[in-house]
Amino acid sequence: MRHNKYKGLLIRWMLEVVVFVMAIFVIFFTVNYFWLRPVNSEMTNKYEKLRLAHQRINYVAIGDSLTQGVGDKTSQGGFVPLFAHELDDTYDVSVVYQNFGVAGNTSKQIYNQITKQTKIQSALKKADVITLTVGGNDVMKVIRTNLTNLSESSFEKPALEYQKQLSDLFTYIRQQNKDAQVFVLGIYNPFYLNFPNIVEMQTITDKWNEASQAIVNQQVNMYFVPINDLIYKGINGDQGVSESNQETKTITNDALFDEDHFHPNNIGYKIMSDAVARAYKEHRNEK
C-alpha cells in the first residue's frame, strides 16, 4: 500500500518537472524571438522575402497583335511574358499570366471578344493586373478605307467613334473587375515606313493618343502608357535609320520587325515591357 503511495508521488513529481521545463522553454523562446532578435536582421529579411514569395499576381493581357506578340521571333508572346518576369524578379512575387491578344483586332473586335468569351470574363474577374493594347488597327482601318484620298480629316469621325468604343471597353472591364490595375498602352507611328507620303501621320498618332489618354484619366486605377516616342524614333532615337546609296534611299526602324516594318521586334517588345514596368512601379501602391 505504502509502495503504491510513493509511486503516485513520484509520477506526480515527474509531471510537475516536465511542465516546469516546458514553461521555461516557452518563456525562453518568446523572449528570444520578440526581444533579442534584431528587427532588421538578415534572418528577418529572409523570412520577409519568403513571405512575399508566396504572394500571387494574376495578370491578364488583352488586345491586338502587340499583345499576341507578332514580330517576336521567340514566339513567346511579345512584351507580356517579359513584363510578367520583370514583376517576378523585382517584387519577389509569383506572376501567373494569361494572354488573350488577337492579331488584327480593332477596339470593337476586342470588345466583342471579351463580352462573348466566358474564359476571358473569368480571367478578368480574378485579375490583379490587366494590360490592354488597342487602337493601331483602328488607325489602319481608316488608312485602308481612304487610301486613295487619305488626309488628316479622314481620321476625325473615326477618332470620335473610337473614343466611344474605348469608353465602352473600359466600362465593361470595370464591370468584371473594379479593383485591378489596368495599363493601357498607346499606339506608335510605324506608318512613315509603309506610307511615307502621309506626312500627317505623326500628328494623327499624337491626337489619337491624347484622346485615349484623356479617357483613361477619367478611370480609377487605370493608367496610360505612352510608347510612341520610344518606338517611333528607333532604338537610337533617330526616327529610324537612314540607309542610302546613289540610287535608292531606304528608311528602316531598328525597333521594328524586319518582315513587315510595322510590329515591334524583340528589342521593341523589351522597350514596351520596360515602359509598362515603369508605370507599374509608379502606381503599384495606389490601389
From TrEMBL:
CDD domains: SGNH_hydrolase_YpmR_like. It comes from the Bacteria. Keywords: Membrane, Transmembrane, Transmembrane helix. The keyword Membrane applies. GO terms for molecular function: phosphatidylcholine lysophospholipase activity. This is GDSL family lipase. Residues 61-271 form the SGNH hydrolase-type esterase domain. Pfam families: Lipase_GDSL_2. The keyword Ribosomal protein does not apply. The chain crosses the membrane at residues 12-36.
